[in-house]
Specification:
Two copies of one chain form a homodimer.
Chain A lengths: L1 E2 L1 H8 L3 H9 L7 E3 L2 E5 H15 L4 H13 L1 H52 L5
Helix pairs in contact in A: 4-5
Chain B binds a DNA duplex (30 and 30 nucleotides) through α2.
Chain lengths: 131, 131
DNA sequence: TGTTGACATAGAGTCCACTCTAGCGTTTAT
DNA sequence: ATAAACGCTAGAGTGGACTCTATGTCAACA
């Protein structure tokens, strides 16, 4: 099944502009052209999906480019690509834990915010605060 | 206990530049000055910690400013601040789930990447691919 | 007293990831 | 055959969050 750029955009929830931008940045070096027009295959959509995951989990575009370039070279170097992915996977796990901690902090602060700010703005505004 | 800007930077893992930038952006309107020099109290460090959590979980600076402004007004409006925080909390939960899904996708792709790219670059490079 | 070091401001510059515009070509429907 | 719809490129512009530079003040020390 083949798709135009606008269909690919729909399927991936990216904008047409963004897909072209990614192509320009070397993230889609494998996309075929017919008379200059991009033709997206199912596998290209798969790659765009992975790309979105990587982007959404904070991988910078230049790292994604490195990954795809490794993948395109040959099987030996593709292993490097897998390695990048595995490393990023650990990264994402760390982010998850970090975000969980942030959530806990936010919960804690929600409870203590009123008190925290009453102390800051009610008492300290009126009383002398010796340093 | 009071801190200079450089001590506050150390405690929060922000740079001095960044703290001053946050102040300029109206995120630290409550920080005292002595002869122009910022003096950070324990509570200010608490607020900087929360600020980092919010920033790390994707809250834009203008929203953080709105929050702090609500908190500074009075108790009624402080409730608005709490509401913002609660809303953001749900936001972060959604992000957590999204990131978990991304992690699953990445795991799946790690398994299937070699196959996916062999199909793309080995077969299609040599055979005619009818559209 | 003069140098060092920490503080300050204003504002310019950087980096990233888009996002948009202008201008052009091709296919499709009336 | 002309206009609408969609595709293309090059390149300018945007927005967010820093990051850095130039310049200046002030306090403490040799």
């Amino acid at each position: 099944m083949n798709y135009t750029i606008s269909q690919a955009a729909q399927k991936t929830n990216l904008s047409i502009h963004t897909i072209r931008y990614y192509d320009k940045e070397g993230l889609l070096p494998f996309v075929y052209r017919e008379n200059g027009t991009r033709v997206f295959h199912e596998q290209d959509i798969d790659w765009l999906d992975l790309l979105c995951c990587l982007k959404n989990t904070g991988m910078p575009i230049k790292d994604i480019r490195t990954l795809i370039q490794h993948c395109m070279d040959n099987d030996a170097v593709l292993e490097k690509g897998v390695a990048i992915l595995v490393r990023h996977r650990h990264n994402v796990e760390a982010q998850l834990k970090e975000m969980q901690r942030s959530l806990d902090t936010i919960d804690y602060k929600i409870k203590h915010l009123p008190q925290m700010f009453r102390e800051k703005f009610s008492s300290e505004a009126s009383e002398s605060h010796n340093e």
